[in-house]
Amino acid sequence: MKNIGVVVLSLLLAPATYAQVPLKSATPAEQKIAWAEAAIKAHPDRSQPYNELAVGCVNRVRETADSSYYDQAETAIRKSLELTPDNLEGQKARVMILVGRGAFARALDLAKALNKKTPDDVLLYGFIADAAIELGEYADAETAVQWMLDLRPGNVPALLRGASLRRLYGDTGGAMLFFSQAYQQMPPTQVEDLAWTLTQMADLQLSVGHIDDSEGLLRSALQNFPGYYQARETLARVQTARQHYSEAVELLRQRNQSFPTTASRYALAEALERAGQTADANSAYKEFETSARRTINSADNANEELIFYYLARGHNAAEGLRIARIEIAKRHDVGTLDAYAWALYANARYDEAQKQIAKALAVGVRDAALLYHAGAIAESLKDGSAATRFLKASLELNPSSETAGAAREALEKLAPATAEARHTQ
Amino acid sequence: MMRKILFLMFVLSYSARPTVMQAQQNSTGDVIKALQSRVRRYPEDHAGYAGLGAAYLQKGRETGDAADFELAKGALEKSLDLLSNDPAAAFAMTQMAVVCMAEHRFDDAQVWAQKALALGSGDPSPWAIAGDALADIGDYVGAAEAYSKLESLFGSEDEKLAFSYQRDTRISFLRFVAGETQSAIDLMRSAIRKAIQMHMPVENIAWSQYQLGEELFQSGEMAAAEKAYLATLEEYPGYYRGLAGLAKVRAAQGNYKDAVDLFKKAIAAVPYPEYAATLGDIYQKIGDTQEAKKQYQLVEFIGYLSQINQQIHNRDLALFYADHDLKLNESLELARKELEVRHDIYTWDVLAWSSYKNSKFQEAADAISHALAQGTEDAQLFFHAGMIYEKAGDSEKAKRYLSQTLATNPHFSILYSEVAAERLAALTQRDDIVSQQEAAGAR
User: Fold this and answer.
1) How many CB atoms lie within 10 A of CB B289?
2) What residues contact B358, with CB distance under 8 A and at least 6 apart?
3) How far does CA B192 lie from the centroid of its chain?
4) Which of A2, A120, A360, B374 is the least crowded, having the fewest Cβ atoms under 10 Å away?
5) Cβ proximity of A211 and A241 under 8 Å
6) How many helices (H) and strands (E) in chain B?
7) What's the N-to-C CA distance of chain A in angstroms?
8) Chain centroid, CA A34 distance in Å
9) Nearest by Cα to B375 from B234, B177, B217, B144
């Protein structure tokens, strides 16, 4: 952790020295799509340009949040597989689409099957890791990432996935190092990759309360890729951490001007509420709820947000728990475990809640909200000492987190009770 | 000769890779045969096709035959058809960038290098080609930035040394362009030490020694250049680059007979138009106009042999025509066309010289100012500048550049070394007379 400041500083300086290639107006994904379309025109009988087109479309989703590109990608892959049945690159693009659409179990199955046939393909391990991380199969993900690094030391896709795993394991410094090593290898033309990596680093910094560093990284991300929606979303959280709620609202309004996701609608509703714009907040929550409910049973959903919505603003703990159960049946990643535990807690099922939150904490993740939830659950079970420990850890980790206020309040309530308990003993 | 440096260096970057290094220990032809057989047996083997492409490129380097680049392209396209969305595809993409460099398609080379980098393979080699493409189009700052990334973050000590070698050879060129000739020479010497330490293939070590010879020759250090060229030939007997380098030294020493023999041997191995042009100049110098004419015809023949040759040798031809007062309109046209593709100092120089020969002195002066902008210590640039400024009526500048020409390398050209000395003497004498007349008038 000691070196993070240095790493961050060096990255902030990076864009200025990276200006060797003038940015073209087309984004990297648009360029990839254009090249692929030209190649299809020139060689309509070859499958590879269709695969390239599919990958370009998948990349474009990450650039824009416009999920309709997945439809185009699927069309391209169908054509590719028609021309050359079972071609590896086409199958790999299929896995990418499945991951993008949130069909993690199917993606994992397909990636593993392809990996059996082609065990030296680096990206297949990456796709296994992607799907496994989402499903909470962290050991499998770790093995896959290790394979990637063994096959090609220092490759960027492995470093990025390794960074995500390190973060999940609570190794913030290690995650920053991997992100930084990946970033340094990226060419200046890959502006979205650069911006995405900076945004991930910013998110990590924000999670440990380094607000200024986080903002610096996000400004750099927006310089690389102006208007980047992911950077704007994270920047809104930075403004929230600073209690600059109107600025957060403005950022999220800008972000939601094109291709808002259900999650980004929820973020805007929360920001409006914090900013005291109650009427707008109510309408935004309504819009979110309607949108999120449509996808409860589909792979690509906003169930995590919906659970928290019902547990807090929606005043429907039972519905929150029902949705949490749908999710936990499909995956047991840290986020889902936490949401499930919190839903159980809200329904006064404290023992079960404790078991689920313990599973999440066992992964090693260091997250202020998760620690706060653990503290609240422990407090409900009358374990004042554990509650105090978790709540303090939450505040130490990130004193400006969204749950910091609640954690402080809970801790204050606990203090006399704990003292009294000690006195009685 | 310095203008050729980048073309030579980018190919080398891949000969330093362990796989190709091993391959070079056998003859390239054998490697090609083995890889052809491998891909016949395993038609889905992307790595086999990528290796085959690299081997064709190596053959192109050895023979100078542009057709090998086409074969390389075909094999690499096949490899990328089989695998393109994986870090493992970065090698084939980088090789594709090398093909583009060989064909002087610098923008395409840049695109392929960036595509390779975008795959994030953990191998920084594409930065070398990205830098070469930038340097060749005259973006020296961008090139330096790209070369600075030629560093293995994760590789073994050997790999780190290999990248350090690649960096040194390339930055040496940039230093030369920046006018830091001694620093360029020191870096090239350091690169040679590393090449030997790494037990690189003899052709690669010889190439580095030849490059050192070129830098020394450019800076007028004839004895040291001779030593470097001899070391080149000792390392790799019969190496055409070493033969051509030594031939230049012999010509500078007035040993035209040996120079002719050496150039003939070099041309027999690889018929570069530049070698034929210089050999023709030597024949001209010793009064053998018939042989000179033959060589000059050969220059044009090679230059127009194929579409790719025209692309590659545009600038060489433009300079050749200008140097020999032949087809001057075409020379200027070729130079202008080349400037559309790149803006490096040597393209500006050729445009300046062609403009001068076409009596377009203002255009020549503008162009030569671009050529000199980096501060390069190159006798040919200085000579062209001196001649242009004389016609532009700036006698002081003309004298200064002609003096710098002779101070930098009095043997810079078979055709024009004496002209430089004569023009300087004439200008000095004329200015002295004018000064004396002015002094007399004042009295």
Assistant:
1) 11
2) B328, B329, B331, B332
3) 18
4) A2
5) yes
6) 24, 0
7) 40
8) 29
9) B177
B139 vs A: CB within 8 A? yes
Interface test mutation site (partner B, options A87, A122, A181, A193, max chain B beta carbons within 10 A): A122
State mean pLDDT over B289-314: 83
ipTM, two decimals: 0.82
Query: CATH assignment of B151-237?
Result: 1.25.40.10
* Closest residue, chain B, to A193 (C-alpha): B118
Interface test with B, best of A13, A18, A21 (most B CBs within 10 A): A21
The Cα A57–Cα A358 span in angstroms is 39
Q: Is the pLDDT of residue A425 over 70?
A: no
Give residue A288's pLDDT band: very low, low, confident or very high (50, 70, 90): very high
Amino acid type, A261: T
User: Model-level pTM?
Assistant: 0.86
Domain ranges in chain B?
A: 1-149, 151-237, 377-443
Check A155 against B87: CB less than 8 A apart: yes
Measure the CA–CA gap between B237 and B233, rounded to whole angstroms: 5
CA A238 – CA B307 distance, rounded (Å): 58
Residue B202's pLDDT is 86
What does the CA dihedral A292, A271, A392, A8 come to, rounded to 10 degrees?
100
Nearest Cα residue to B309 out of B69, B115, B106: B69
* Residue B168 banded pLDDT, cuts 50, 70, 90: very high
Q: For chain B, how far is it from start to end, CA to CA, in angstroms?
A: 52
Nearest-angstrom CA–CA distance, B127 and B150: 6
d(CA A380, CA A414): 11
Of residues B434 and A108, the one with the higher pLDDT is: A108
Please report, for chain A, how many H helices and E strands are present, in that order.
23, 0
Identify whether the C-beta of residue A272 lies closer than 8 Å to the C-beta of residue A249: yes
Report chain A residues whose CB lies below 8 A from the CB of B93: none
Find tokens 């083997």 and name the residue. Answer: B45
Distance (Å) of CA A67 to CA A70, A258, A293, B421:
6, 12, 18, 72
Residue of B nearest to A87 (CA): B82
Closest CA to A45 of A83, A93, A87: A83
The span from the CA of B323 to the CA of B414, in Å, is 11
Tokens for B87?
A: 């870090």
Tokens 């076409």 label which residue? B358
Neighbouring residues of A60: CB distance < 8 A, sequence distance ≥ 6: A27, A29, A30, A33, A66, A69
Phi then psi dihedrals of residue B359, to 5 deg: 60, 25
Contacts of A120 in chain B (CB under 8 A): 88
Superfamily of domain B1-149: Tetratricopeptide repeat domain (1.25.40.10)
- Contacting residues for A379 by C-beta, under 8 A, at least 6 apart: A387, A410, A414
The answer to whether the Cα torsion of A204, A208, A213, A215 is positive or negative is positive
B17 φ/ψ angles, rounded to the nearest 5 degrees = -70, 140
| Residues from chain B contacting residue A18 (CB–CB below 8 Å) | 145
Chain A closest CA to B142's CA: distance in Å?
5
CA pair distance B248, B251, nearest whole angstrom: 5
Cα R_g (chain B), whole angstroms:
23
**Cα separation, B11 vs B6, whole angstroms:** 9
